[in-house]
Design a protein that fits this description.
Helices cover 3% and strands 51% of the residues. With 351 residues, it is mainly beta. A twelve-stranded antiparallel beta barrel has the order 1-3-4-6-7-8-9-11-12-15-16-17. The chain has a three-stranded antiparallel beta sheet with strand order 10-13-14, with no helix packed on it.
Length: 351
Amino acid sequence: MIRVAVPVCLIGLMISSVADAHHPGGVGNTSGVGPIFTISAATLEQGHAAFGLWYEYSRLSGLSDAQLIAAAGQHIHAHSIKTIESAVAAFAYGITNDLMISVRAPINRRTDIREGHHSHGPEGNTVDFRGDSTGFGDMTALAQWRFYNNIISQTQAALLFGVKAPTGTTNLNDVNGELFETEFQPGTGSWDWLLGAAFTQQFGAWSFDTNVLYAGVSTGAQQTNMGDRFSYNAAVSYRLIGANNDPRNAFAHAGHSHNPSVLKAPVAAPRPSFALDAIFEMNGEWHDKQTIAGVVDQNSGGNVIYLGPGLRATYDRFSAYTLIGVPIVNHMNGLQSKSDYKVLTGMSFAF
């Protein structure tokens, strides 16, 4: 018996990497089984859709006042951030059985933004508290074309391509009334392109998924280019509770199936059932250095790799899930706040 990826968990489109410690990330999967952050190669059946909400929380170690003051004394523009948070609404639709398009709309938040301030006055170098930044982020559209789907070997492969539009807020001011730099704004003001691939291999109750996704970033608000990003992910999933399903009967309901490989004989509508999947993921994110008016910021960009467990509970077409990630590689360029951990939790419904 083979599990089928029933589209219950909405896709989260990878737009901004947590690796830069400025903009939240969020990659997800359309299937009711398998990974949470990693993108599966499975697609929605033609004419079917899914809607989801999820929340991503990243806790950073931050920089001390002493570190910020020392950096300011060396004319280094360093800053500290406590948390990066993102609440996301997403919608996906199956254009054909092998072509799906998804749209993602986030609200982004950063808390406890602090910077070192260089001064030649009697007070010397100080630390400026700039407050929090919250607002609507950049929306993204991502298409997923499954070009290979072998139901005998349980193997799937897909191409990913899309665009991020500059719909986010870029004019927020801090508590002192000064305009936040683009790196602190909810949006970037740039048009970016996305290109990648996804692969899925199932082994009965087991599933292996992996994907890569590259974001080519253009110059946006305040002459700032946030830097290209590259996401590389892999996940192993295991069905703990619940029966596996024959993939040829995917979305078989009301006496018919949307899969052309299924015979036209009537089938009984399946009863709603509960399933629980255990998941272990590796999520890597590389982020290039940002440039402002052509000047490279040496204290930006880097590479982070997270490892961590997750759980997905599914009932009929409803899914709820949680994933925890702890960095095992935390290489940041220059002086930056580093990630301590991240948590991704959400729910979705297919129809």
